[in-house]
From TrEMBL:
Single GO MF annotation: oxidoreductase activity
Residues of the Thioredoxin domain: 22-165
CDD domains per the UniProt record, alphabetical: TlpA_like_family
Annotated source species: Flavobacterium cellulosilyticum
Lineage top rank: taxon: Bacteria
Name of the protein: TlpA family protein disulfide reductase
InterPro entries according to UniProt: Redoxin, Thioredoxin-like_sf, Thioredoxin_domain, Thioredoxin_ResA/DsbE_sf
Length: 165
């Protein structure tokens, strides 16, 4: 019984340590990402471009099977929410694979690539441990969903509907 109680306490502590964040750290905001035109852009500048608009950020990679399986869901989300901004941040290892994936999967939105993949400054700064992963930001710039995965599209859809009100 004490083992079960200890396990529950540990689970609660770990769950609480990954609580919903409502803003990004300065380290994440100032981290540069590779833009599709070859320039380096600070994450805060990407967010500023979408200021005043609801934004969905998808963290993905062309090699990720779960990412590919989720593509129809993100396309459906885009079709049902055309007034929302969409930013795709790739965790690919090469620029060629990233750009090929954008074309192959017909991803519509703004495209960036983390310079050091999932284990780098950006990935660690946003607690990235799984892709695809989704972040939803409201019109005021507040993070309303921080750690959604491909099985959370119902939650994402519901949140986007609530943000329209």
């Amino acid at each position: 019984m004490t083992k079960i109680l200890a396990l529950l306490i540990t689970f609660t502590i770990v769950s609480c340590s990954k609580a919903q964040k409502t803003k990004f750290s300065k380290e994440v905001l100032t981290e540069n990402l590779l833009a599709s035109d070859g320039s380096q852009v600070a994450f805060q500048d990407i967010l500023k471009k979408h200021k005043g608009k609801t934004l969905v950020i998808e963290l993905w990679a062309s090699w990720c099977g779960d990412c590919v399986k989720a593509m129809p869901k993100i396309k459906e989300l885009q079709a049902n929410n055309p007034d929302i901004g969409y930013v795709f941040i790739s965790m690919d290892k090469t620029v060629e694979n990233w750009k090929t994936g954008i074309v192959k999967y017909e991803l519509k939105g703004d495209h960036f690539m983390a310079n050091d993949q999932m284990e780098g400054v950006f990935g660690k700064g946003i607690d990235l441990n799984w892709i695809p992963s989704y972040i939803v930001i409201d019109k005021t710039g507040k993070i309303v969903i921080y750690r959604a995965i491909e099985t959370d599209f119902k939650k994402i859809n519901t949140t986007l509907e609530e943000l329209k009100k």
